[in-house]
Write a structure and sequence with these properties.
The longest helix has 27 residues. The protein has a single domain, classed as NAD(P)-binding Rossmann-like Domain (Rossmann fold, 3-Layer(aba) Sandwich). The chain is α/β, with parallel strands linked by helices. It has a seven-stranded parallel β-sheet, sandwiched between helices. The structure holds NADP nicotinamide-adenine-dinucleotide phosphate.
């Protein structure tokens, strides 16, 4: 994908990885739109970077996705990049009767939403000279962290979907890119739970360089290793990551 002269929509762009990517797209002269559920977070982001265009919406809601499409393409007809970044992560003890609502919510936000949003935006993107859909998956797409079992499953599925999406859009103006983060120090899953992760700017700088180089898969650290690992290596990685604490 090209990294200049785009109009970019980043879901979940007010914090963490989404915001770090938003800053880099802005610095490279792109027009950047961000959305999320918390209006105060969106306003906070715009206070830091007044060039940002913000829209409050819940991507768990199909009507929220439709509203996002209408706002984004109606106000920014040159929109040509969608970054499916919004996500949640829940620790779930599978033997403790977790609620189906919690399970479903994670499936919907992390998997149904990016799939549906991709299909909603494709017709608009097909009319652009160049466009891209960027899906943010995870190193856990390849080797799950058992304490976040639904999350890991959604990311494995989003990786799979990304391959199919890229295949189906081959030969069109729409390229499909996967960003594969390792643990990164953000508020994912709750404040302070990802302190052990890579510093956000170090991660985002590396991803940005890879995007500029035209990578179809931009990965970092352990996630890069996992994305290339053999089955034996993945088994070892799984054992190491899931040691009893
Ligand atoms: N941090 C890591 O270690 C890591 C590793 C691998 C992959 N990732 C992926 O990176 C992406 C970004 O996560 P992050 O680490 O940057 O965490 P984060 O700071 O918590 O960002 C998640 C963003 O998604 C938004 N969001 C969540 N549910 C939403 C919904 N229903 N509708 C609209 N927006 C929603 C949140 O905003 P609101 O709460 O205001 O809606 C928030 O801005 C996620 O897909 C995550 O799975 C993160």
């Amino acid at each position: 994908m090209k990294t200049e002269s785009n109009t970019v929509l980043i879901t979940g762009g007010a914090s963490g990885i989404g915001y770090a990517l938003a800053e880099r797209f802005l610095d490279a002269g792109n027009t950047v739109l961000i959305c999320g559920r918390r209006e105060d977070k969106l306003k906070e982001a715009r206070a830091k970077r007044p060039e940002l265009h913000i829209f409050a919406c819940d991507v768990a809601d199909p009507q929220g996705r439709q509203g996002l499409l209408e706002w984004a393409t109606g106000n920014f007809p040159t929109l040509n990049v969608l970054v499916n970044n919004a996500g949640i992560q829940q620790r779930i003890a599978l033997a403790s009767s977790p609620s189906v609502e919690a399970i479903r919510n994670e499936l919907i936000i992390n998997l149904e939403a990016p799939i549906h949003l991709s299909t909603l935006f494709i017709p608009h993107f097909l009319k652009q000279k160049e466009a891209a859909i960027v899906n943010v998956t995870s190193g856990l797409s390849f080797s799950p962290l058992a304490m976040v079992p639904v999350y890991s499953a959604t990311k494995a599925a989003l990786h799979s979907f990304t391959l199919s999406l890229r295949h189906q859009l081959k030969g069109t103006p729409v390229s499909v890119v996967e960003v594969i983060p390792p643990a990164v120090d953000t508020d994912l899953g709750g404040v302070g739970l990802h302190k052990f992760g890579a510093p956000i700017d170090e991660f985002a700088d590396s991803i940005w360089e890879q995007l500029k180089d035209g990578a179809e898969e931009a990965a970092y650290g352990m996630a890069a290793e996992a994305s290339w690992a053999s089955r034996d290596q993945l088994d070892t990685m799984f054992e190491r990551m899931n040691q009893p604490r």
